[in-house]
């Protein structure tokens, strides 16, 4: 009986793929009273808007995205999808707050050719910068994404485009995050050909094309994946909030006779030859395999006694805390610009990472709804060790007033401090994860790991991580 630790999106997905492949029953163990992990939607049926505490949109492009769309189709959620199309402001307009004003990022070839308020030169010049920049003096295993972009495309692009983008992806510092993990294709082109643009050109002419992922061919041909491509979705969500996804997954698991235990904390893991003993709330359960979709530091606590070196490797993946502040105003015309929102470069030294314009992205019943993301890599620097939700709300409203000129008092707010919620893919992350998985294999442990700590923070990433983990087990 395989046991899955963690009832977030990755753990539920792992249980789903297991239930399709295993004859044995599968069990999901979740320490809290709810499923879904950091995916949490709070609709207000009376006023007709939604607060999202975690992710709210999914990207539809690429193999991992096709896998997610196939899963949504399997769950019968096709009619619940809310796409955003390319012409929509939330798809076209992304902004950066820097030097005391908002700047619109170029989103077309014409915009790339023109001088903008954010960059010293037209962005097209960054292409020439890469073409003229010398090859790296030595082959590198990895480096910070900031250093790579600055070296190839100039400091302006690194500071005002890539750094805020990393804040949006993982609430992290681009000067610490691994280029090999987040931009491996571009990094390898530079290392092989001496430049990114040169590598793209020569690679397309003489390089070997990657063969399609065999396990994802069916996903890429699913009806929903085809529809997303034909209609040109930019991003999408689900009616009633993204939490509909894990709820539907949980419902399907029950149909597939998967046992789901909530309020059931795993206290310890022991391994005997090819078996594992899982201590769940004081009771021991034997299993032939454990899949951990827990944060890596929580898994480290479970294996510390028997495998301290593995625990040390797991703890080497750092995490950051993010405060999420949802704000709703009864007026619908408070924003001067229609956009997805804006991000803030770390060089501005502000406590906010960015603001999402939820009511521009989706219908919020003529209300203005915003989400302020705060802290991340710099949480304790700005807020101390134990900030109050009152202080965090005050800080969020202060910056909404300063940046977006909103003077009104919100009708409803929600403040959540998500402790250690996002793993940081610091330099060497790819090797770090490889060492963890190699240790598990080398020691013959009936254990596998999946989720954001290892394979990426996005919704598509954690679901594909779960699928590939299950496939690797069932192919053995």
From TrEMBL:
Gene3D superfamilies, sorted: FAD/NAD(P)-binding domain (3.50.50.60)
N-terminal signal peptide: none
Free-text remark on how the cofactor is bound: Binds 1 FAD per subunit.
Catalytic reactions on record: protoporphyrinogen IX + 3 O2 = protoporphyrin IX + 3 H2O2
Subcellular location: Mitochondrion inner membrane
This enzyme's EC code(s): 1.3.3.4
One Pfam family of this chain: Amino_oxidase
Cofactor dependency: FAD
Function: Catalyzes the 6-electron oxidation of protoporphyrinogen-IX to form protoporphyrin-IX.
This protein's name: Protoporphyrinogen oxidase
Native source species: Hermetia illucens (Black soldier fly)
């Amino acid at each position: 009986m395989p046991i899955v630790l963690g009832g977030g999106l990755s753990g539920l997905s792992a249980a789903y793929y297991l239930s399709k492949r295993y004859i044995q029953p599968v069990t999901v163990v979740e320490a809290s009273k709810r499923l879904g992990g950091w995916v949490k939607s709070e609709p207000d049926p009376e006023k007709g808007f939604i607060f999202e505490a975690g992710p709210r949109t999914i990207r539809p492009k690429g193999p991992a995205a096709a896998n997610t769309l196939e899963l949504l189709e399997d769950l019968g959620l096709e009619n619940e999808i809310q796409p955003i199309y390319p012409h929509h402001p939330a798809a076209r307009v992304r902004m950066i707050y820097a030097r005391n004003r908002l700047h619109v990022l170029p989103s077309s070839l014409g915009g790339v050719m023109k001088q903008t308020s954010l960059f010293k030169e037209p962005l097209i010049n960054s292409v020439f910068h890469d073409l003229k920049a010398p090859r790296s003096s030595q082959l590198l295993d990895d480096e910070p994404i900031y250093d790579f972009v600055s070296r190839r495309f100039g400091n302006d692009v690194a500071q005002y485009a890539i750094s805020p983008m990393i804040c949006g992806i993982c609430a992290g510092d681009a000067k610490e995050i691994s280029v090999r993990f987040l931009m491996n294709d571009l990094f390898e082109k530079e290392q092989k050909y001496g430049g990114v643009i040169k590598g793209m050109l020569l690679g397309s002419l003489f390089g070997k094309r990657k063969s399609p992922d065999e396990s994802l061919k069916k996903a890429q041909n699913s009806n929903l994946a085809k529809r997303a491509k034909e209609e040109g979705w930019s991003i999408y969500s689900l009616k009633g909030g993204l939490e509909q996804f894990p709820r539907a997954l949980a419902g399907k698991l029950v149909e597939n006779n998967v046992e789901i235990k909530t309020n059931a904390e795993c206290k310890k893991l022991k391994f005997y030859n090819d078996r594992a003993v899982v201590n769940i709330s004081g009771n021991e359960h034997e299993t032939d395999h454990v899949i951990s979709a827990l944060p890596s530091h929580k898994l480290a606590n479970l294996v510390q006694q028997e495998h301290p070196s593995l625990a040390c490797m797991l703890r080497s993946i750092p995490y950051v805390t993010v405060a999420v502040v949802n704000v709703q105003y009864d007026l619908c015309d408070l924003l001067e610009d229609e956009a997805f929102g804006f991000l803030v470069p770390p060089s501005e030294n502000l406590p906010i990472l960015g603001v999402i314009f939820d009511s521009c992205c989706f219908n919020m019943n003529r209300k203005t709804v915003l989400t302020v993301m705060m802290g991340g890599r710099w949480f304790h620097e700005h807020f101390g060790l134990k900030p109050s939700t009152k202080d965090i709300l005050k800080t969020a409203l202060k910056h909404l007033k300063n940046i977006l000129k909103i003077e009104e008092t919100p009708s409803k707010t929600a403040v959540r401090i998500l402790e250690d919620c996002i793993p940081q893919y610091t330099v060497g992350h790819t090797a770090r994860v490889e060492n963890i998985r190699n240790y598990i294999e080398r020691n013959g442990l009936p254990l596998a790991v999946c989720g954001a700590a290892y394979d990426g923070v996005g919704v598509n990433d954690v679901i594909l991580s779960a699928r590939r983990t299950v496939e690797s087990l069932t192919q053995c």
